[in-house]
Specification:
There is one protein chain. The strands form three sheets. Strands 3-2-1-4-5-6-13 form a seven-stranded mixed beta sheet. It has a six-stranded parallel beta sheet with strand order 9-8-7-10-11-12. The chain has helices at residues 2-10, 31-46, 83-95, 113-126, 144-158, 168-195, 211-219, 254-262, 268-282, 287-291, 303-306, 335-345, 372-376, 399-402, 416-422, 448-456, 458-467, 469-486, 518-524; strands spanning 21-27, 50-55, 101-105, 199-203, 223-230, 239-243, 311-316, 352-356, 388-390, 408-411, 427-429, 442-443, 489-490, 494-496, 502-504. It is built from 19 helices and 15 strands. Strand 2, helix 3 and strand 3 (101-105) form a beta-alpha-beta unit. It is an alpha/beta fold. Helix 4 packs across helix 6 and helix 5 (144-158) crosses helix 6 (168-195). It is globular, with a radius of gyration of 24 Å.
């Protein structure tokens, strides 16, 4: 705080953003938020914008993004007083202090625990659930999008898509998530009524604590920007996604569409940057691979098995519970429905060998949640398959050694959708409006009938891809280059930790970091 206050006196202020009113809804007053949104708020304030940073002081329930493994903890919505966190918040506010910057708590907007409890009582009285399949519910008194955003929070918290609403804990948390969604919308209404921002900024953008407020401001035609988090697929730990949509739906970004329309093809230098990125990923040097120590250099030999089949198809699911939002389902009822559909559609085909490789993070920071196979074994009878190989995370198989052995790869929505075609293997993407569901991949856009047709005609799918491979690669190269080198902003408060992962601290800021970059001006002006 002392360093920041000293530095601010040496930074020349400007009026470049004068006239802008920027609301930053951090939702949670955590160190991570002060190092990201707090820094941005101070930067904008130094250049003339009126900025209000909004913090929740106990109105929302906070477990859909902050993961805890003790599922009894949410039964007591009041967190114990954390003296260290209290001091940190005071210090951060002191360091970020500026005449153009205000911190506003939700309670100052007229929201309190009494209002939250009233909503909880109303939800409990009116909630009528009709269990239909794994997670279908019916709430006549609420609009569908509130149900869906609450559902995504429950999936995230319990780390399972196979929700049991007869479990009183699942039901209680679902109610809490509905209340969160209602209150998130109310927060947005209060912000708009009391501040009338010209720009609304938040983080994450999905789940019940974030999504409703984003939805409100977009409906109100207020410029809405979402800080999507570290670009884990690259190597720069200060590069963060920053766009008009959540990162899980980045292919729909208006900024991507505008850039793509202006750049019909890449220069040789730009193409080389993408291939250099792929080389680094294959050598496990990207941010996410620093955490994926379970994916080293072992090779799974398919030669004996491959000779018995015409095509080898790799199936690569994401972590089932992470980013599992209805906006990406299309006609599927989530990721499990897609996996069930795929496996049973290709079951015992004499011409197709399926290789199912769950996400390697099931062995690392997702190891406390249920695994893909835990979910699938209740839906799929693996014993009757004679054309399926399942590669467990424990086998530590290098995905990049496996890809060249495939004739086709299928992903829900992952970076492999770009990497496989760059390595000569066509990829099918399933999710609707995803992060990597772009032209260049064989896009299903969440449509079951179209997907079934592809599975029934693999020869034609592969042949057409090879015929149009140059066009596919150009589309993929463009998006990969934009995603890695153009999209997003730099957050100098984040950097790589030599021991793995990243570190964050406002102490890493220097005077040069308070200059308003041309990239930031594009977003704000």
């Amino acid at each position: 705080a002392l360093k920041l206050n000293k530095m601010k006196k040496q930074v020349p202020n400007s009026n470049e953003l004068k006239g802008l009113k920027i609301a930053i809804n951090t939702v949670r007053p955590l160190e991570a938020n002060f190092c990201a949104e707090g820094y941005l708020g101070l930067l904008f304030a130094l250049h003339g914008a009126k900025v209000r940073i909004y913090l929740d002081d106990g109105i929302l329930y906070h477990w859909d993004k902050i993961q805890v493994d003790d599922h009894d903890e949410f039964l007591n919505p009041k967190a114990r007083f954390d003296f260290k966190a209290f001091l940190l918040e005071k210090a951060f506010k002191l360091g970020l202090n500026h005449s153009n910057l205000e911190f506003i708590n939700y309670s100052q907007l007229g929201l309190n625990e009494k209002i939250r409890n009233e909503y909880m009582n109303e939800v409990s009285r009116n909630l009528k659930i009709e269990i239909n399949g794994s997670k279908k519910v019916k709430l006549d008194f609420l609009v569908k999008w509130i149900q869906d955003t609450a559902l995504s929070s429950v999936i995230r918290y319990f780390k399972t898509e196979a929700l049991n609403f007869e479990d009183e804990n699942v039901l209680k948390y679902f109610k809490m998530s509905i209340v969160n969604a209602i209150l998130s919308w109310k927060v947005a209404v209060k912000i708009n009524d009391t501040f009338h921002p010209s720009i609304y900024i938040t983080n994450h953008g999905i789940y019940s604590t974030f999504s409703p407020a984003v939805r409100y401001f977009k409906n109100a035609h207020v410029k809405t920007l979402i800080l999507g988090g570290l670009k884990v697929h690259g190597t720069d730990y200060s590069k963060w996604s920053f766009s008009d949509v959540p990162i899980q739906q980045l292919s729909t970004s208006q900024y991507w569409k505008e850039w793509s329309a202006k750049h019909h093809q890449l220069t040789d230098e730009q193409e080389n940057k993408v291939y250099e990125w792929l080389r680094k990923r294959k050598n496990l040097l990207s941010c996410d691979h620093q955490w994926l120590t379970c994916m080293k250099d072992k090779i799974y030999h398919l030669d004996n098995k491959k000779s018995q089949f015409k095509h080898v198809v790799g199936i690569f699911p994401n972590v089932i519970w992470d980013g599992n939002i209805s906006e990406r389902w299309g006609e599927f009822n989530g990721l499990l429905d897609w996996l069930d559909f795929t496996l049973n559609h290709l079951k015992n085909r004499k011409d197709v060998l399926m290789v199912l490789k769950p996400h390697p993070t099931e062995l690392t920071f997702c190891k406390k949640g249920k695994r893909t196979l835990d979910f699938l074994k209740n839906r799929v009878n693996f014993k009757i398959f004679n054309n399926l190989i399942i590669i467990l995370p424990e086998w530590k198989i290098n995905t990049y050694e496996l890809i060249p052995k495939l004739d086709l790869g299928i992903v829900w929505d992952g970076v492999l959708a770009l990497e496989m075609p760059l390595m000569g293997v066509p990829s099918i993407t399933i999710a609707k409006n995803g992060l990597f569901t772009i032209p260049g991949t064989i896009m299903m856009d969440g449509k079951k009938k179209m997907y079934a047709s592809c599975l029934n005609n693999l020869d034609l799918v592969i042949k057409r891809f090879k015929i149009h491979e140059k066009e596919h690669l150009m589309d993929i190269l463009k998006y990969a280059y934009w995603f890695l080198n153009v999209e997003g902003i730099s957050l100098p408060t984040y950097s790589r930790n030599v021991n793995g992962g990243y570190k964050r601290s406002l102490r890493m800021l220097e005077k040069k970091h308070f200059q308003l970059t041309s990239r930031m001006k594009q977003f704000l002006m």
